Every structure is written in structure tokens, then in C-alpha cells.
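Whiteboard transcription, Tuesday session. T.W. wrote the C-alpha cells on the left side:
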């Protein structure tokens, strides 16, 4: 039993110790253009999800999910977000290659978070990711319009989907 406990403790210590040595010796890839290691990506995504879930208040979107609100959010996205997050058929060249972590391309991979989390991310930004905080630049109403659009991307009304796809061609 003592050997088992010693083995478990050793296992828990060797992994983090080895990772620390690799990082301190400068062997961990840090270039923004480098492909992140799979484990780093998984840990970063889980950390982001847990942190946003913990930090964001579970507030209800005060705006109706109307076509007007979705269109207003789509306009904001095109003007302020598409440069990094891309558009249908036009992924961001530098958002997909020159950011670390890579910038999600929402036309291909719509966000899968509730409104309240999307609102918090847009308003507060995400440290170490290039996602800036828009809370000082845009009103809460504008951020909610954008949030409404983003949360509806998977199920846009047909006429808005046509505009979303057609305007990028």
C-alpha cells in the first residue's frame, strides 16, 4: 500500500515538474504563429469556460431576439469583430494564423455559450488572448445587440441568414 501511495504521489509530481522544467528551459513554443500543444489548448479552453462561468452574472438579455436586434448586432459584428472573427466564406487571415490562441471564426464555428457569458466576454475581454474589452467603447445596449446576433448565429432567420452570407460574396 505504501508503494502504491508513493507511486501516485510521484506521478502527480513528475508531470508538473517536467512541464515546469520544459518551460523554464525555453523549450515550450511561445510564438503566436506556432501551433499550440493539444494539452495546452484543452487546459486553456476549460480554464476560459470555468472562469467566464464563474465571473459572469447570469443576467437575462434585456433585448428581444427580433430581426431588428439581430440585424443591428450583425452590423456591429461586421464593423468591429469580423476583422478577427471572419465572415462567411472569408475567414480572417491573421486571426487564424497570427493569434495565439487562434481566434474562433464564428461563421464556421458559432459560439456555444449562453447570452450572459457572451455579453461578459465582449464587455470585459479575455486576458492573454487578444480579445479586447469593449465595455469602455460600446454601450451595454450595443453589446447586447451583438450578443443577440452571436447567440442566434446557429439559427438565424432565413432572410437574415441570406444577408449574412450574401453580403460577404
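and on the right, the sequence the group agreed on:
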Amino acid at each position: 500500500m505504501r508503494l502504491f501511495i508513493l507511486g501516485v504521489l510521484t506521478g502527480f509530481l513528475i508531470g508538473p515538474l517536467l512541464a515546469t522544467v520544459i518551460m523554464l528551459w525555453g523549450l515550450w513554443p511561445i510564438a503566436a504563429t506556432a501551433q499550440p500543444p493539444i494539452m495546452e489548448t484543452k487546459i486553456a479552453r476549460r480554464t476560459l469556460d470555468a472562469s467566464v462561468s464563474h465571473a459572469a452574472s447570469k443576467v437575462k438579455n434585456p433585448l428581444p431576439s427580433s430581426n431588428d436586434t439581430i440585424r443591428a448586432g450583425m452590423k456591429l459584428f461586421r464593423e468591429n469583430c469580423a476583422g478577427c472573427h471572419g465572415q462567411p466564406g472569408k475567414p480572417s487571415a491573421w486571426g487564424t494564423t497570427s493569434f495565439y490562441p487562434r481566434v474562433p471564426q464564428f461563421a464556421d464555428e458559432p459560439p456555444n455559450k449562453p447570452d450572459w457569458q457572451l455579453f461578459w466576454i465582449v464587455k470585459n475581454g479575455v486576458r492573454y488572448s487578444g480579445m479586447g474589452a469593449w465595455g469602455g467603447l460600446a454601450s451595454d445596449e450595443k453589446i447586447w445587440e451583438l450578443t443577440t446576433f452571436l447567440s442566434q448565429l446557429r439559427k438565424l432567420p432565413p432572410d437574415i441568414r441570406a444577408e449574412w452570407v450574401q453580403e460577404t460574396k
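Someone added at the bottom: The chain has seven helices and no strands.
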